[in-house]
Structure formats: C-alpha cells, structure tokens
Amino acid sequence: MKKHILIFSIAAVFFISCNKYTSPKTTSEKNIPHPKPPETKAPQRILFIGNSQTEYFVSAPIMFEEFCRANNQRMNVDQLITVGVSLQKVYTTNKTEANQNFSNKDKDGNYYDYVVVQEATDIALSDIENYKANVKMIVEKIHKNSPDVAVYIYQGIPPVSYTDSDYLENHDRMRKNAISVMGFIKNAGLLRVGDAIKDAYDGKNGYKYLVDNKDNLRYGKHTLHLLNDGGFLQSTLLYATIFDQKPIIPKKLLLITGTGYFDSMRKQEVTKAISNPEALKEIAFNNR
Q1: Whole-structure pTM value
Q2: Which of 270, 162, 279 is nearest to 215 (CA)?
C-alpha cells in the first residue's frame, strides 16, 4: 500500500511540474535593435498598417499624432487599417490606396520614415511562417519608395484575459515570434506593446488595472481591444520608442466615452479619462 501511495505521489508531482508553465529566457532588451530613420529636413512621415489592435475603441494613429503635435514634433500620419484581418487582407482590402502610398515620392528618396506593422493576433501567436511571409510582402512594397524606412514590428498582446492561465505562455510566444520576424527585416525594431501591457497588468510603477473590478486596459466580448488606458500606453510607448524621450502629456486627447453602441471618441481631459497617466508614461518609457 505504501508503495502504491509513493508511486501515486511521484506521478502527481510529475504531472503538476509538466503542466506548470515557466517563462523561458528571452532576448534581452539590450539586444533588440533600434532602427534608424532616413535623414530628412522635411516633416517625417509614419505609416500604420494593421487591424483593430491598432484602431478600434481608440486610435493609435490619431493619438500618436496628438502627442507629436503637443510636443512640437512634425509628423505626417498615414494608415491602412481593416478590422479583424491579417496583413495580407489589409493590403488587398486597401489595395488602391496602398499602391498609391507605395508609389509616392519624396525628395530625400524615402516617402516614409517609419512604419508600424501589426499582424493579426492569431497569426502572430500561432502561424510564424504566414507571419513572416505577410510582413515580408508588406515591407517589400514599402521599400519601393522608402528603402531606408525604419520598420517597427508590433509585439502583440495575448488574446486571453490577464487572469487566464495561458496568458504568460501566449505572451512569451508572441514576443518570440515578433523578434523572429524582426530579425530578417532590414532596419527593423520591436514596438513592445505586449511587454508594456503586461507590465501594466503586473502593477509596475504603481499602476492598477482594475477599476471597480473591471479591466481598465482592454475590453471585448469576443476580441479584447485596447481601452483609453491601453491606447494611451500604446501611443506613449511609440512616442518614447521613436524619440527616445518621455512626451509632454496633452491636456486633452481623443478618447472613447464608453463601450456601448452609442459611445464614440471625443476630446476628453486626460486626468479624467486615463486612470493613472504618469504611471503609464513611466511603463511606456521603460519599454521603449
């Protein structure tokens, strides 16, 4: 009997250890390259390519432009956004506009100075070959008129809630895949959205993601999308990553009034619409 109990105990320990996920060692932040934009005397230009993780409740292109304007950074902002699809379909859906963008010329030889490339979450998580192929396709088209563009690969956010047991494993896999894609693209770096959101969930810099027991970073019945806090963090992160400095926070930003059918984006005071802007700004800067 004792022998049976001993065997059962060993088997139970083995089962638990096999099913307990441990985060592996990943590429150090110091080893992640920072792409250099082409030299230009004209206002710089950035292109956002992606789906609803880039723009849904709040808009990364709009908010980033607001940050640039408030900090006297001259920046033209373009976007190719289609909800719920892969990079391949973003291109085919917006083919006429995309081809026009990729044929425009600039005196310095680079129409775009920066591009943020955001792949669909399911592909970024579980289909590395399609991920690489789609990014390669998009970047090759951009290189036709912007051969020296600084490319930022968007590190996605796990599609599950922070309290889900798969969150950490999803995060590490998406990070690993994004770094892998970044590695074979010319002049590319990582926009560490996934890392920054995880730090916010982890409570870095005193940030608390739960407000009235509700997630203040993301919301969605089927797909989790960034809310005001999450969108603010994402845009602040992009600013800090590109300019290597903390932005002056505008008094007002275009933010969502709620998640209901009749809610919309409108100018709101940051101190009222964002739960802890200073903490989020520090998290963003630490992930640049």
Answers
A1: 0.90
A2: 162
Burial tier of 237 (Cβ tally within 10 Å: 0-12, 13-18, 19+): buried
* Residues pairing with 154 in the sheet: 191
The confidence score (pLDDT) of residue 250 equals 96
In this structure, what token pair is assigned to residue 214?
């509700």
CA atoms within a 13 Å half-sphere pointing along the CA-CB vector of 144: 13
Give the integer Cα–Cα distance in Å for 253 and 249: 9
**Residue 228: both structure tokens together:** 């005001």
Q: What is the average pLDDT across 205-228?
A: 96
Tokens of 29: 């932040």
pLDDT for residue 9 is more than 60: no
Residue 121 has pLDDT above 70, yes or no: yes
The residues, any chain, with a CB within 8 Å of residue 151's CB and separated by 6 or more, are 35, 114, 115, 117, 139, 142, 185, 186, 187, 188, 189
The whole-angstrom separation of Cα 35 and Cα 142 is 15
pLDDT 10s digits, 173-182: 999 999 999 9
Average predicted confidence (pLDDT) for the chain: 92
The reported pLDDT for the residue numbered 21 is 60
